[in-house]
Amino acid sequence: MTTTKNHEEVSTKQVLGQMLVGAWMTQAIYVAAELGIADLLAAGPRTVEELAEDCHAHASSLYRVLRALASVGIFAEDAHGRFSLTPLAEQLRSDAPDPQRAFAIMLGAEFYKSWGKLLHGVKTGGEAFRTAFGVPFFQYMTEHPERHSIYDAAMESFAVGETEPMIDAYDFSPFKTVADVGGGNGLVLASILKRHPGMKGILFDLPAVADRARTIVSGFSLDGQCQIVGGDFFASVPTGVDAYVLRHIIHDWNDDDAVAILRNCREAMNPEGRVLVVEIVIPPGNEPCFGKWLDLMMLVVGGRERTEEQYRRLFAEAGLKLSRIVPTAAEISVIEGIRAS
To answer: What does the alpha-carbon distance between residue 339 and residue 320 come to, in Å, rounded to a whole number?
Structure first.
């Protein structure tokens, strides 16, 4: 009996210990991503001295980082001291089919510093990001466009695995027009329009984002299907649209701001229109859910993930009725709203 108990104590201690040092791994992956190590290894194995020369790093220090990452399957070291890519490391290449490099940089840079202020945020209700950098998250991104481009690329990596499941699960065919509000680079809207060639789309985002999106969208061969409009969704959104898609937008904001965005969509849409909020719906109880951890990330930057009941309240305050929640093969759901009677 004593032996079993001791074994259980050691086991749980080891599990908790691995969780506690998770931040170490985040930073090691960030360093490799920021330095572009996976790109440098795309042509084949190289020594750490060669890598350090190309990425302007200290060879011995870089070796220690890569050795640690190799111990968990990110990169591999051979008997001659050369490092090579592994399936995990391949995802850190800039040209990977499902690239995670930008996401790794995003999590390891500004967001990592902000997490260090989480305790302050929990004690005060304030935004950890604002405490760390002195300004709200989106203001910071506007003032640092080079960092915003990394954030956009990281969000694109999310879109890759979510877009097709969303289109498979929710029937967009009844709509003649769809607006992607806060649509970023236009990849999600382009996928919807390609699935429905007779549909017209509007990509709506901040003017600077819209300007960047024009070049990207022009390469989608949409044959005039897509219009790009710059603006501020707190002021207004394009009018006369059948469906407004807000993918990972509402979770960025507190309840008052979220209601303001939803209300603007409600006032602008056609009488039989729909507001389609695409987010993770937090399940009740202790069920594991990535959204419960993403909610902490949103706590850091000033937003939140929500339960079904919380979405119902948001919709009601905006003059909408939550008509249904459509789950997808990904963790996201399409939360559909109509005008309240």
So the answer is: 5
Domains and CATH numbers, the chain: 2-93 (1.10.10.10), 144-339 (3.40.50.150)
Is 60 exceeded by the pLDDT of residue 2?
Answer: no
Reported as a single tens digit per residue, the pLDDT across 123-141 is 999 999 999 999 999 899 8
CA atoms within 13 Å, Cβ hemisphere of 209? 27
Establish whether 7 is a catalytic residue: no
Contacts of residues 317-323 at CB distance under 8 Å and 24 or more positions apart, as own/partner, are: 317/255, 317/259, 317/263, 318/259, 318/262, 318/263, 318/265, 318/266, 319/263, 319/266, 319/267, 320/262, 320/266, 320/275, 323/274
**How many Å apart are CA 48 and CA 41, to the nearest integer?**
11
The pLDDT of 301-312, averaged and rounded, is: 96
Catalytic site residue from 148, 196, 248, 251: 251
Whole-angstrom distance, CA of residue 175 vs CA of residue 12: 53
Q: How confident is the model at residue 87 (pLDDT cuts 50, 70, 90)?
A: very high
Asked whether 230 and 206 are in contact (CB, 8 A), the reply is yes
